[in-house]
Amino acid sequence: MITTILFDLGGVLIGWSPIIPYLKAFDGDREKAQWFLDNICTMDWNEEQDAGRTLAEATRVKIAEYPEYEDLIKLYYGEWETMLTGAIEGTVEIFRELKESKKYRIYAITNWSAETFPVAQARYDFLQWFEGISVSGELKMRKPFPEIYQYTLEKYNITPSEAVFIDDNLRNVEAARNLGIHAIHFQNPEQLRVSLSNLGVKI
Predict the structure, then answer these.
(1) Beta 14-16 vs 163-167: how paired, if at all?
(2) Each residue of 46-77: pLDDT tens digit?
(3) What is the CA radius of gyration of the chain?
(4) Is pLDDT of 144 > 90?
(5) How many helices (H) and strands (E) in the chain?
(6) Beta strands in the chain (DSSP E)
């Protein structure tokens, strides 16, 4: 029986697209913008900030590596707020229904910089609905490593077999499953609703 729902945030409840400021910087040339993200300000680099590295240090390190791209590197966090594309309304509605049912404990585990997370908190009221949020940048541990899942389970006294974790990143889903947590690889709100129902979650 599922008693606890664990949500990821980015890509599940909140849209995030780092290409947005670079499309503007490259005059709409998507290929150039994507090349920059694939080769310079990469996801691996961004994840170090999710794990606790400061934005200032991250920017300094990357500029030292690619001084010819200094202005474009500074753009990543200078224009970071424009990367937030809004609430994923269908998932927020599922969250609302779960919350209003009062049948489940609801938490979040998110890979998010401690410095940028307050921006999202101020923008999206539904982030106040959680009973607790494990923010990787604050904890200095991130998915898919087991420590952040174990921390959350212990802090909130969650039984893994009674919990379901929802994430759009398959490696994070598999990490949860390895710890005995039911997990759903999020594709879209409609698929999520069906997957929760299949686990016996009443919405």
Answers:
(1) unpaired
(2) 999 999 999 999 999 999 999 999 999 999 99
(3) 18
(4) yes
(5) 11, 7
(6) 4-7, 14-16, 84-87, 105-110, 132-135, 163-167, 182-185
DSSP category for residue 179 = T
The answer on pLDDT for 89 being more than 90 is: yes
Contact in structure between 13 and 86 (CB atoms under 8 Å): no
Per-residue model confidence as pLDDT tens digits over 117-143: 999 999 999 999 999 999 999 999 999
Find all residues with CB under 8 Å of 107, minimum gap 6, and list them: 4, 5, 6, 7, 130, 131, 132, 133, 134, 152, 156, 158
The answer to whether the pTM exceeds 0.85 is: yes
pLDDT of res. 203 = 86
Q: Dihedral sign, CA of 53, 166, 124, 122?
A: negative
Question: Could you state, in order of their start, the residue ranges of all structural domains in the chain?
Answer: 4-15+86-198, 17-84
92: region left, alpha or beta (phi > 0 left; psi from -120 to 50 alpha): alpha
Q: Which amino acid is at 150?
A: Q
The CATH H-level (homologous superfamily) assignment of domain 4-15+86-198 is HAD superfamily/HAD-like (3.40.50.1000)
